[in-house]
Design goal:
mainly alpha; 0% strand; 129 residues
């Protein structure tokens, strides 16, 4: 993995997947990787242009970014259900807002990124035999 891929993977995981505040991600990723904060801000501003390449790179390793986002959302649903069971409406509302943010991120990715070729599983599902 190149230093650029490492940096952008960290940005993806922390800002998009975990939902950490932008300035926290900027400061901490810049410090962790010993790069200028302006570089991290530029990456965040241009995420739609480099995400397909990162997704392709990560797909090769067997992990798709959207799959990670969906898995994270599934965990959030479980946490929201637990908060509801505990009658913690405030916490449930916060978690549900994060779920909505995650859905919007995924929708934006699908709307703005070029369509990629079907994966092997998608091809299999079209014509399994």
């Amino acid at each position: 993995m190149t230093s650029e891929q490492t940096r952008r993977t960290q940005i993806w995981e922390r800002y998009v997947l975990r939902g950490e505040p932008r300035e926290t991600v900027v400061a901490e990723v810049a410090a962790d990787l010993d790069v200028d904060e302006a570089t991290i801000r530029e990456d965040l501003d241009s995420i739609r242009t480099w995400l397909p390449d990162l997704d392709e790179f990560r797909d090769i390793g067997g992990i798709a970014l959207v799959v990670e986002l969906r898995a994270n959302r599934q965990q959030l649903h479980q946490l929201a259900d637990e908060a509801r069971d505990d009658e913690d409406i405030t916490e449930e509302r916060k978690i549900r807002q994060e779920i909505n943010r995650s859905i919007n991120v995924e929708r934006q990715l699908h709307d703005t990124l070029p369509k990629t070729k079907a994966t092997g599983m998608e091809e299999f599902m079209k014509d399994p035999f």
